[in-house]
Amino acid sequence: MDIATTLPGRGALVPRARLRTDRPAQSLDGRWRFRVSPSLRGAPDDGWQRSAVAEWGDIQVPGHWNLQGYGLPAYSNVQMPFPIDPPHPPDANPVGDYRVDFDADPEIWDTPRRLLRFDGIESAAEIWLNGVSLGTTRGSRLTHEFDITDTLLASGNRLAVRVTQFSDATYLENQDMWWLPGIFRSVTVLGEPVGAVRDVFIQADFDPETGTGAVQIDVDAAAPAHLVIPELDIDVAASGTIPVGSVEPWSAERPRLYDAQVRTAAESVTLRIGFRRVEVRDAQLLVNGAPIMLRGVNRHEHRARQGRVHDTDVVREELLLMKRHHINAVRTSHYPPHPDVLDLFDELGFWVIDECDLETHGFEYVQWRGNPSADPRWREAFDDRMQRTVHRDKNHPSVIMWSLGNESHAGANLEAMARWAKGYDPSRLIHYEGDHASTYVDVYSRMYASHDEVRAIAEEQQAGEDEHRRSLPFILCEFAHAMGTGPGGMQEYWDLFEAHPRLAGGFVWEWIEQGIEVDGPDGSARILYGGDFGEDVHDGNFVIDGLVDVHRRPRPGLLHYAAVIAPVSIEVDADRSAATIGNRYDTLGLAEVALRWARTVDGEVAAAGHLIAPACGPRERVVVALPEEARAEGRASQADVLTVEAVTSEDSVWAAAGHLLGSGQQVDLAHADVPPPFEAVATDTEAGAAEFDPVTGRLQALAGLRISGPVVGVWRAPTDNDRDVGDDEPGLPSYAQRWRAAGMDRTVTRLLGIQPDGGTLVVRSRTGVPILDCAVEARMRWTPLSETAVRLDAELSPSGPWPTEWARLGLDFELEGNPQGVDLVGEGPMPSYPDLRSAARFGWWRLDADALTIDHVRPQESGSRMGVREAVIRARDGAVRIRTLGASFALTVSRHSRRALDETPHNWQLPDEARTFVSVDLAQSGVGSATCGPGVLPQHRLSPRAAAVSVVLERL
Predict the structure, then answer these.
(1) Active site residues per annotation
(2) For residue 612, which phi and psi values (nearest 5 degrees)?
(3) What is the pLDDT of residues 687-702, one digit of tens each?
């Protein structure tokens, strides 16, 4: 078995479209016999293709062998797991031998031609049937078919497949995911009748000027074929260009499909046709004559225990979840997905960039020396991959771009791929981010360009040097790296997209966290990442990045992204006289959108109703008058909030009627009632209901409830983005390193004084950092208010030259026992930070204990809620209310200390500290997207500054 070649696989048939047909098919999925050897040289040459397998184990196909007890998974991003020595894989290279015996179904045996199809084998395979070599495969996520007409038996067939984990193909498949070898997609035997339809290519064009459609069809059939589209009264010879008259176009917003058949006397192929036209004009991306906005995500195929094995029900629910969060575009990073996924894209409505199974990113570590993209010896392999991608998926209207691959630098082989694809299928655009000059692509695509650079690209003139690139629409094929707490800065990107016609949107990296779930010794499930399986080369938890967790539960980033890209924008006038409704759909009006409003005063709905919106076409705005009840005079003790929402008016495939499409608020905050002082004793150990430690000056109890603090805090448990260096600061250490170097994670507080003052207690302190002379000086005045409440007036000011920006400026408290939940008046219900806030709405929220923070696989700071006016924190021994008398604050309540979060590598290793950790933050830094892309934007950074807060603390 030669696994050190630069060529594509051998023996497979010419690639063709995946067709739904009535020809007989026999699935070979199920239990196969299996064994694994440590290397190709060590794999037994014992006639394994036909010999007895009594001593072999068994395995599920489709599946990955290292997720079924045969070896261990490994993860690396850019780093290759072995020396870069193309085309040679390492000697230590697990080899899996598969065997299955089967009888041919009679319907297949009765056909004159039989095929064997493999939809996915990682990474290289040789195929044997009944002792006859059929050929080899390259392209792990690409379909290969073999002619077995002369090899298949009516009964007693013995199929044998030898698979290597690594091969020459590995150099082309370094795609930021787990290395998971095996036959992981289906294996099928097909019967081909006399007069069969071998291949069909339909290009269904829509003319937006006339509203008519035309079908250009090419059929490879062994008999005359007819095209039948019953709904359009079409029944004609399946050849050439066929006008079909007036049609409804296909779009991601209204995915109109027409059922069609291509028939011969022996076979009927079923197709679902979508009429649409994709083009570039005036540096804009147009479909059906109208500009579109790609509200996208990058999607890997992944399940927690099954890896890249497909499950249609899981994927359907996954795509419905995307639709419910307004996502309308998918980049199939970095390979074609399972073929059935394309059917779902067509049906549900997504703009798709279908990406070839190609990435040579590992060569970046050697300055791209020997990169196959520029080596003519690899030309056939590159061409084969592109052709297999295009042919398989060419009949899907959802696919509007073919992507040559990902992060493979530059070279003539990529240009050849583009030239072939454009020549074969001129109806679609060519995408490749690595071609920064855009010489052979149809869109200008970048990854993680900064906000300033995106603005500059949007504003550059078409004429001038590099004129072709300037004439193309611009997309961010990756942006907003959704790793851990984040990503920050999405709103600022989208504001640019909405403001500039050239900008056609972007794709968040990425959709799903790719953790591997295993059972721990106690039987509990736990998620693992790179390095947890003993890999020598790995990229840690860089694989844990996604808008949803590994079980497809939304992370806060998805909720905020949904608000950022919401199809309806709503701005409520300050005087509540009207609301401006913005239609951000590309092709739809708002006829199927209902508008509703509600006025909530101090947590109770005072009035509510529906609004009648005038007609509003795509990308238009209208002003809607609001009723008098929305602004009637009244007095609130907390807040008077008017919320206007746009919701679906009817049930759809992806959501029930009433699903939120956008919202806006006008919030009138009440002036806080300042309670009068309460006559009580104030000493250095007490101030009314509050008891203090005279040595530290800290609160010890409130009306008998044990509570300690406050301690001034300027540090947070570093997030994934804090631990990385943003593209905007390549010469600086990460935030986490800067904070640690400044000692912010181990501050020391010195009591300057504790002194009763006219019925109050004044505590002065200085919180500094080791080694340096910078500090925060605090003056806290405690005023008794009742037998259960005190007022705290805190003034904080920096002292000395701080060497770096802060993570936050806050007051930290601790209660005994784990938190039981929080009731808050403020922004929620999801967590929010200064640059990750778009979905948060002012309201009265009740959060249970599990909702307080985010259970990140790698522990880190999470759970902040901004704009808080009042909160009741429920702990094991009682509850405390914190209410502001002035400015709002950000609240974080956690069962884990920041030190534990910082020092613990996995969530399942976090200790039970039996404490409730509370932070009242006067100011915070944003979270940014430094794991890939820019860090915290300047307007969301927190320079050392003075701040003050007045709050009431009350035991309930």
Answers:
(1) 407, 478
(2) -100, 115
(3) 999 999 999 999 999 9
